[in-house]
Queue: 2 jobs
Job 1
Amino acid sequence: MSTLLLVGTGLIGGSFALAARRRGLFDRIDGIDTDAGALAEARSRGVVDPPGAESRPDAVCVATPASHIASCVDEIGRRHPDAVLFDVGSVKSPVVDALRARGRLSPRYVPCHPVVGSERSGPSAARADLFEGRSVVVTPVAETDPETAARVSDWWRKVGARVTERLPEEHDRILAVTSHLPHLLAFALMEVLAEVDDDTLRATVGGGFRDFSRIAGADPAIWSDILHENREAVLAWAGKLVARLAIDDDKQALHGRLAQARERRRRLDD
């Protein structure tokens, strides 16, 4: 019997558990969570199995906040040295660096990041189809066993994901501008709009504002953790963005900039 241990039963970890169950990747899925209420809900929704006879996991999915991943991987790795460990955190280099500094960067640990999310959180937000057609970035390092990395990548493909490989530092630099900075901007915009009363906002905002600001509904606990862990990379991109926020005196020059930006955005959908 193959067993998956899910550490953290929220949106991403819970969705992997549901998807893995649907595809029959494991015979049993156990769960642990520091939030007893979340764990109870995950069990009631079938995200993880009810408590049963204790068994050694064959695989462990670490779905904790980014700043807790290294200590969790270390602890679980000591307890279950033969298990395949992988995480779903949005920041990779700090985790790898922390484990390497401890001398605990196991060849059976594969850093991963599913590039998908929702403004909803918790076990109730978990979906078995969350990863279908979506990107998962796997960031193996020199210490990672290639066969273990290939096995984890295969699990992601079987739940419908498109898998790419990057170095941890490359991942963090790119995700800082494609994911982390947009979230910071959405949160910051809502802070700026604190001086506008809610009734006025409701009466004047359109679809564009709602589309852009939707991610400001994301979990502050998760995003304060991510932004803090990847602070330097996010701020480096933020500096470049500030330089682009000027509105040119020359209308034609402004038009040219906007046209180039629109074309770049359109190519993303090709």
Job 2
Amino acid sequence: MQTEAKAHIFILGANIIYGLNYVIAKVALNVIPAFPLVLTRVAIPLLFYAVFALVFQREKVDRKDHWAFFYCGFLGVAANQMMFISGLDRTSEIHASLIMITTPILVLLIASIVLKERLTWRKIAGVLIGAAGVYLLIQSSEKSGASTATVAGDLLIMGNAMSYAFF
């Protein structure tokens, strides 16, 4: 099998796992409350990382980089996971997955503000089309009456997307 074909299979597999994450987490929330679930999702990988780092660490980490690790750990893991699980507990899987589509849009906007990344008309059009698509999908699901979403849950998921975008 060619390398490109293998890469496509891995990308498809990653997308399937990512998509199933919402459903699996929602089912898990029926059994485990939000905070213990987040603690489990954060503590177990942290434990594996700590053991791995102690056993295989070859380089010394500069003291100045400790704040960067803290910042990335807080935004990319702790705040991200707490808002994701708490938001998913209060909204539907559909709303959560649709709102998370905004992550690349938020990355673009944050990069343009913080890193002074140049915004082009093409990027702006992509942001507007993505935002409009998410809005239309959420509105159509609300009109069908099949939604269990709440504004608080949707805002927590949006906070999750923003936290991950800043990460």
